[in-house]
Design brief:
Blueprint lengths: L2 H33 L3 H27 L3 H24 L7 H20 L1
Helix pairs in contact: 1-2, 1-3, 2-3, 2-4, 3-4
Length: about 120
């Protein structure tokens, strides 16, 4: 399988990840509205969503790539968090890369991608 085909598969995995992210964040928004969840709990759920969707996206990628799946899962996790970071920078113009929460979230996304690739 060519590298271009593998990159296309990663892009499809990212699309799956972001689609699932959208659905889960909408469900969270409803839960926050309906049940008046606290901000701390909402933040933890958002991080859990990021980990879950990178796992799912990497699992999809790993099933299709079939070689070095962990590597392609890792790449998906990196791309996922990179895109979120860039969008965050463009929207708020106030993103601190060295913030511990941001670094932890990034590592969890990469770990979710790595695990999803390995288990696919």
């Amino acid at each position: 399988m060519s590298i271009g085909r593998k990159i296309g598969i990663v892009i499809k995995g990212l699309i799956v990840s972001y689609a699932v992210t959208g659905v889960l964040l909408l469900a969270l928004a409803y839960a926050v509205y309906r049940f008046r969840l606290e901000e701390t709990l909402s933040s933890l759920i958002i991080i859990a969503i990021y980990v879950i969707v990178t796992f799912v996206g990497a699992f999809v990628v790993g099933k299709q790539v079939k070689e070095k799946r962990f590597l392609w899962g890792l790449i998906l996790g990196l791309m996922y968090i990179l895109i979120i970071t860039v969008v965050g920078l463009l929207i708020s113009k106030a993103f601190h890369v060295t913030d511990t929460a941001n670094l932890t979230t990034a590592m969890l996304c990469v770990g979710g991608g790595l695990l999803g690739g390995m288990l696919s």
